[in-house]
Design brief:
This protein is mainly alpha-helical. It is built from eight helices and no strands.
């Protein structure tokens, strides 16, 4: 059996690798991807410290509807998605290598998977294999779904010439990721009705369907943009010729 620490990093690394491979036409250089992944890991520490401080004040009573809503949406979802959003718009969003809408999803995913990987490692140290396996099938994919949704709108915002609309798209990405994350966590955290926990899986599955549609849309747009830039190139996967 694999040690908990190894099991903890597999889901995040696997999803990050799959996204990297799926970016077929303007594949990103490894260095900015690695930086984003590492920044996602680094920001996990202040996020968890903020959450612990708030919970220490008494914001941790899952049997109360008010506290469950407050904890899931504001203490967890808002804090985590806001920090990840800030990394995305401060670093890759402003760089010249962010040169197509799909990059919003790619870089958001690297940040999200960096965050989820360190978070999973910390849970592995405290709770062991059962929790790590469960989180690998639920919490890590939720971070991935939120990253796709946020990155989708951030990518749209980057290439929208209307400044006001661009700002609205940025806000939409943050709010959508926040909403999905908050709903998922509420069903996990609350202890009001045990049967409500099943809705966390439903939330993840429905969100995953929409996230896949968003990704495929941007993947198609990436291909179209690449064909316009390289009309003389035969129809084949250009990533096969790129250095990884």
């Amino acid at each position: 059996m694999l040690p908990p620490m190894i099991l903890a990093v597999i889901p995040g690394l696997l999803i990050a690798w799959l996204i990297f491979r799926a970016d077929r036409h303007e594949r990103e250089s490894w260095f900015p991807l690695l930086v984003c992944f590492m920044l996602g890991m680094i920001v996990t520490v202040p996020v968890m410290l903020v959450q612990e401080k708030v919970h220490a004040l008494g914001a941790d009573d899952p049997s109360s509807l008010v506290w469950a809503l407050f904890s899931s949406f504001l203490v967890i979802a808002l804090v985590e998605e806001l920090f990840k959003f800030l990394i995305l718009v401060v670093f890759p969003y402003r760089q010249p290598f962010f040169n197509e809408p799909l990059d919003g999803i790619v870089y958001a995913m690297m940040i999200g998977m960096g965050f989820a990987t360190l978070e999973n490692l910390l849970y592995a140290l405290e709770f062991g294999i059962p929790t790590v396996v469960l989180r690998g099938l639920t919490a890590v994919p939720t971070h991935a779904v939120c990253a796709v949704m946020m990155g989708y709108f951030v990518g749209k915002a980057k290439f929208n010439k209307d400044k006001k609309k661009s700002q609205k798209l940025l806000l939409s990405g943050l709010l959508l990721a926040f909403a999905v994350h908050g709903i998922y966590d509420f069903f996990i955290i609350q202890e009001i009705y045990d049967w409500l926990i099943g809705f966390s899986i439903l939330t993840l599955m429905v969100s995953l369907v929409f996230a896949l549609k968003m990704f495929k849309e941007e993947q198609q747009e990436s291909e179209e943009m690449w064909r316009e830039r390289h009309p003389e190139t035969p129809a084949q996967d250009p990533a096969d010729k790129q250095d990884l």
